[in-house]
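Service request form, structural biology core

Requester: graduate student, group of Dr. S.
Request type: structure prediction, single chain
Budget code: on file
Notes: please return the result as structure tokens.

Sequence provided:
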Amino acid sequence: MALLQVENLAVGYESVPVARDISFALDPGDYLCIVGENGSGKTTLMKTLLGLQDPLAGTIRMGEGVARDEIGYLPQQTQIQRDFPASVREVVLSGCQAKAGLRPFYNRQDKETAARNMERMGIADLADRCYRDLSGGQQQRVLLARALCAAEKILLLDEPVSGLDPRVTAEMYQLIRRLNEEGIAIIMISHDIDEALSFASHILHIGKQVFFGTKEEFLKSPEGRRFIGWEGGSAE
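Core staff response, request fulfilled:
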């Protein structure tokens, strides 16, 4: 059964759509990459999936046992967020807030979840460090650990390697792949078409024409061949 089912979705702001006619399904174990030109509505779609804004049309249905507050989310970072003056432990723990509800404190289970995900991301030794003093790659690991505190079955990633050097980018992609192999379904926005094609099981292309299908189907489609040509990627 699909974890997430989207049908004829239109997304945008103040009744003005930036993308429409979006339909796709996310099954357990899927690794879905969302690609498209700048301004095509990729981030807007992700925010709509998270319930941060309402759809203009269409439906979003969660599968049985999936709740929005159990979806992990790694957004694009702003400079203000990069300078956030909190410890790594505090940042990671904040990922448990949605599950805490009205409870005004973190309980033992929250702290154990945060510790487990810091260990999982290889940053347990950074727990007492100030977040803003970390490198870009370390900050992304912290934010991924934070997202995992919420993630039960689905993890949404908005350009998770933006601004990282090639070595750290490769490490981040391997971390994400490992999480997918552990059973978390991934939805990732990417401008890196080669990496998207390398890791993804499915592609959602947003543009004048919307495409959803397997990676192999995308490579054979008119949308895929046209987009790969524009982006300078490889169809190998």
